[in-house]
Amino acid sequence: MFQFFKRVKTVVGSELNALLDKAEDPVKMLDQFMREMEADIREAEAAVAKQIANEKMLKKKHEDATSLVQKREDQAIKALEAGNEDLAKRALEDKKLQSQQAEMLKDSYDRAKNDADALREKLDEMKREYHEMKLKKDTLKARAESAQTRTKMNRVMSGIGGDQSRQGFERMEEKVMRFEAEAETSEDLSSKSRSLDDEFSTLDRNSGVDDELAALKKKLGKE
């Protein structure tokens, strides 16, 4: 009944790392360990309860036999007081038998009590080990989940900056540079076109001013 806990303690204490290395899912394996330990505790509790019930039954029988011994002695005294020696003798004979029975029941009760006490102690030890393993399981579970998360993050981060991603960024960079070059070329062409138009506009404005200046000179007689 208690052998499994010894095995689990050994596994958790000295072989867990190797076991978890081979396990597909360490968290599930740890949970399975705890379920098996809980099942063993329930089995042990049932065995202890049965032994305690046996102890109580033997204790009750021993108490009843002891009471009967006293009762037969009282009856023998009462028979003698009544002058009935035959009845007193029969009461004392039964008292002897009950005394022997009480002694046997006392031995059986003592053994049952010792066994029940030993089982109680074993059960308490199992529960202490279970709680210790539960705390350790929670710690290992957190460590396993943390390690798995770090592994996933490392895989994701290793993909960033990889050959495929880097080549994709380089292609997009070249494409953006082409767009920028096309925009600059378009702006240059537009600037040249505007400069030509501006020169003609200036020429047109200068022609108008010259005509107005000539008209004004003529009016003043200075021409």
How would you summarize the topology of this molecule?
Elements (H helix, E strand, L loop, with lengths): L2 H20 L3 H56 L3 H75 L3 H58 L3
Helix pairs in contact: 1-2, 2-3
Q: What is the N-to-C succession of helices and strands?
A: HHHH
Q: Which radius of gyration do the C-alpha atoms yield?
A: 53 Å
Q: How can the largest sheet be summarized?
A: none
End-to-end distance, in Å? 135 Å
Q: What is the structural class?
A: mainly alpha
Number of strands: 0
Q: What is the approximate shape? A: rod-shaped
Mean pLDDT: 80
Q: Helical residue percent?
A: over 70%
Number of domains: 2
Q: How many helical stretches?
A: 4
Strand content: under 5%
Low-confidence stretches: none
